[in-house]
Amino acid sequence: MSDIEHLDRELKENLKDYKTSAAPQMKLALHWDKDLIFSARTARGYVIDYDAKVEWGCMPTESLLASTAGCLAIDVVSFLVKMRCEIKSFVMDVTGTRNPYPPQYFTGIEIAIDIRGKGITEAKMNRVIALSKEKYCSVYHTLRKDLNYAVNYKITQE
Fold first, then answer.
1. How many domains does the chain have?
2. Domain contains 148
3. Per-residue pLDDT, 146
4. Using an 8 Å Cβ cutoff, are 134 and 94 in contact?
5. What pTM did the predictor assign?
6. Distance between CA 71 and CA 140 in Å, rounded?
7. Domain presence at residue 70
8. SS3 139
9. Burial class of residue 154 (count of CB atoms within 10 Å of its CB; 0-12, 13-18, 19+)
10. Residues β-bridged to residue 58
11. How far apart are CA 47 and CA 51, in angstroms?
């Protein structure tokens, strides 16, 4: 059995209950403050401020970009831990490219991961990124199907 096949078998067993308890509905409340400033409060009480002029809050597309990166990050770190990797640091640089005319949807998202730790290999990184994109990242699967989504990484062994 190859190393990749062994990783897949071990990871598949560890992921059998991963993300199986997601609620079928998600709710939040969005309130207008003034001008084009709004506050979104999740059902759990977290607040995100939105501002069209970006003076008092972020743009909705910024939070979408952050959510896309956050979803991938949670998957990657969780999967690597299940693969017995020891993560010392994890940083993402994320760039979103948008259509210049309305609707100004994302035409591309490029993510560069800088990860440091022990036991992290290219084979493991390629597998966990693929699993996130193919099956587990709900945010990615909510985006347009013609989105060009690229993820690169740099590993530093410690």
1. 1
2. yes
3. 87
4. no
5. 0.85
6. 8
7. yes
8. helix
9. exposed
10. 50
11. 13
148-157 β-sheet, strand order: 86-98, 106-118, 148-157
CA–CA dist 58, 130 (Å, integer): 30
d(CA 39, CA 157): 42
Cα 113–chain centre separation: 11
Name the more confident of 122 and 145.
122
* 52 within domain boundaries: no
DSSP assignment letter at 134 = I
Which CATH number goes with the domain that contains 7? 3.30.300.20
As a whole number of angstroms, the distance between CA 138 and CA 5 comes to 25
Task: Please list the residues that pair with 150 across neighbouring strands.
Answer: 110
What domain range includes position 112? 3-20+60-157
Confidence category of residue 1, pLDDT binned at 50, 70, 90: low
Q: Tell me whether residue 55 is in a domain.
A: no
**Any idea which residue has 């290999």 for tokens?**
121
